[in-house]
């Protein structure tokens, strides 16, 4: 039975984050997933030197931790993989694809692990079993008959290992295209495109050691209690040491208020907890740019005063002189910026902006972390520039205990990019790849996620292959994405669990079931390890420990090697050899990429090794050879502003976000307990004054429609209003249910990331639904 139709309840959560609440949920989860007793062991091996890397988030591990690193959502991710429930050929024989489409994403997830390769049969509208070799031959046949390799797109979700991802990109480039849409395009792309302009590399500059000595940590647009729970351990230590922690977020996320550490028995037993953030700043959605600009302006004003009074400078003058370019123009622009504009565009009063400015100026070692609240807007790249510039003003980059900390999502999304999953590869990388493997890699830049969907709709992309993920639900403009996928000649998914992307398929379609990271991967009689890179550029090895969910699973690396072998033959690369010994792939990575010297040796070290980040050492790999200050104006002509001009105060800006019980499009359960939502997902968080202004009552059912300028109607129906502490004019709801509202054309400048955190919508009264839509 689908419980998502049940009424559910709203009840404020008054407990600290994690603590006993988390333990209770873990127990419920293990029972629900029917995880076998023997597999409990594996939960304790997550993120230990001899265990596997947690398939949850990309937060790094504390290798010297004495206790296991307990994390509720890590356990859920592992339990979801270790579940004993199975999706077998018999299951598919019992259900047509059409029937399965009527199930919610939560129900689809609940069926368990896929066991056998399946092919779609249009005569019965069912998937039926297919031999692995036949599946590989079908893919090769489709790829080889395409008039141009650019008519195929190769998606990656960030769970793939470095080894699988490297082999994948080598195969695809030898096949002849750079069409690598990946989850990163929807995630931290603004970080990856923005930081190279200011500091020379699109990665963070801190390590966990920096968290140990930072005196100020500012968290922008991130909800760690849910999405990176192990980060709370770091924040707890910092808070107890007396560091100042600030959360900048339209929501006052409860999980950032107090935390009970399951690692500390005394805190658990005494029902104690540690205060995390001491200051909460609640900008309106997308208001961070103006807010940070205000902080930077205040710093310049303080410094101007210091110069006038002959007191100690506020700027790090030596750093600015020695390491940066463009500061004078940057400071002049700040001096001229209007406070009124900064206040109205950020939604934060000047006193609060100045208060954040004082906190920042008092910090000697400041870390700024950020997540999707910063990266999924129209002007995200500009905000990333500005945020890095703010840290540069006081030399907070390349100093111990200070720096930039973009917190990535998928556990190996950063590694995937490092080893070549990149639709806009650098010439240097392509040169080297071509040299080592003796071929001419394609130079034309490939398609990102949004472009891939557009090209499918226009009929230019005919074959889609997904290495993990759930393309149909993770991408914007759901119904148009569906049209795109359905117009393909072939869709293929290398995957662990059933999801909607398998149901929204091309004329021919394959589901190829694969091992998860927690499972033992034996090739040529030897258990293989895979490597991953976390958010702080630590590269380390991971060994699966559980018995594979089915005998008929293949590893991602083996599947990709077989596809490459079937498509391109063995002339240039002995694909199957690579798949029989992953150390050989690591040798190849070492040959192509700088920083991986002695790769196979260095991963033997517990905790692995740190991949060099030049900006951390104050070396600037930018166009100018220096760290750059960049001037950007506050954007005042945006789709949101234009929609407001037409609809006045009734126009709401919608952010789409994650609940506590989901992993992206995978819905584990229907609660979001820190936000007080239980047993339901179709809710809209809204300010009580806006409920009244719109003529609704708390708990009313509404439909949402997007205000966009292309004439296409976009709606998502049946959401309950939940009054919430959120700025006026801003609302929040969960993704993926809200993706039908995100227009394909609504993307960030430069990064082309869907603006999942700022969608102009109108609310309409609806009646209580008889049945909920499936998606
Ligand atoms: N358990 C679990 N863990 C996960 C995931 C998961 O789904 N479940 N997903 C993984 C992935 S792929 C990623 S990318 C990360 C995502 O982790 P987060 O970056 O935390 O992503 P979101 O849940 O989308 O939440 C964004 C936060 O930003 C705030 N926000 C929204 N708009 C704005 C804004 O305009 N300004 C500011 N300052 N704040 C804003 C929201 O209120 C919310 O607190 O987590 C990873 N880890
Ligand atoms: N509206 C809106 N849209 C968003 C976002 C948002 O905040 N709002 N966030 C965006 C972000 S940050 C991201 S990263 C994307 C996520 O986009 P994706 O990465 O495409 O989506 P996931 O839901 O993480 O993919 C889950 C599926 O991956 C498969 N899977 C799980 N583990 C493995 C494995 O080990 N191997 C393989 N081969 N498959 C596996 C399972 O079949 C599972 O159903 O969504 C983006 N979309
Ligand atoms: Mo992500």
TrEMBL record:
Coiled coil: none
Listed Pfam families: Molybdopterin (PF00384), Molydop_binding (PF01568)
Domain Molybdopterin dinucleotide-binding, chain residue ranges per copy: 653-742
SUPFAM superfamilies, per database record: ADC-like, Formate dehydrogenase/DMSO reductase, domains 1-3
Keyword Iron-sulfur: yes
UniProt keyword Transferase present: no
Sorted UniProt keywords: 4Fe-4S, Iron, Iron-sulfur, Metal-binding, Molybdenum, Oxidoreductase
Cofactor entry: Mo-bis(molybdopterin guanine dinucleotide); [4Fe-4S] cluster
Occurrences of domain Molybdopterin oxidoreductase (ranges): 113-496
Domain of life: Bacteria
InterPro entries: Asp_de-COase-like_dom_sf, MopB_CT_YdeP, MoPterin_dinucl-bd_dom, Mopterin_OxRdtase, Mopterin_OxRdtse_a_bac, Prok_molybdopt-oxidoreductase, YdeP_MopB
UniProt-listed NCBIfam families: Fdhalpha-like (TIGR01701)
Family as reported in the entry's similarity comment: Belongs to the prokaryotic molybdopterin-containing oxidoreductase family.
Name recorded for this polypeptide: FdhF/YdeP family oxidoreductase
